[in-house]
Amino acid sequence: MAEFGVIGLGRFGARTSKELLDLGHRVIGVDSDEKAVEAMADVLTHSAIADVTDEKALEELDLTNCEVVLVAIGEDLQASLLCVLHLKTIGVKEIWAKATSKSHHQILSKLGVKRIIHPEEEMGIRVAQSLNYPMVNEYMSLGHNWFCVEISIGEYLKGKTLDDIMPDDSEFFHVLLIKRRDEVTVTPSLSMTLEGNETLVMAGSLKALKSVAPKLK
Ligand code: ADP
Question: Of 7, 52, 106, 216, which is most buried with the most CB atoms under 10 A?
């Protein structure tokens, strides 16, 4: 269990706070809008109505023990940047922030923000990926054009082995695990026969993953 600070309890900040609380963490939520704080006060570990552009007010919130403070103010660029600056001054070690534009991103990055989130853009990419490959449940970028993907396969692959679905450039493709009902097989052998209706977790280069996709449809 860790403690997190969430500044700005709009849709993004409120939803992130709820998820963190559900995961068993402590969350200090702050917003200058009384209504936004009231709506979350019952579920948050601590809540406060404060204008975070005011360094003194921010200091009184005692956020220095938080593992990460998330600045979830998107629209008001000045408030977002001032808040990050003040958090740095009062000694908050790790700051994550939401950005709404390229210049917002650039300044946050220069200020040393560890992770900059573009919720709409990230969600847009995810939705496009799911539309493109409907069988992909989850995917994660590993950098250098490598991805880890989780896919669900249907009856049509029953009787095939993993070897049957391997791409030509197999050194850039790995099946990490297969899940059947409650049973998980880690790093399955290529001779393993598929039953259909399984979940596969694979890692590979984008090129290799794309060449495998038609075999999984
Ligand atoms: P979303 O799209 O997630 O709703 P917004 O940028 O619209 O994001 O909302 C950000 C939240 O941050 C709002 O609830 C707003 O009241 C709050 N906020 C904006 N400026 C300040 C500030 N100076 N101090 C504290 N909270 C602020």
Answer: 7
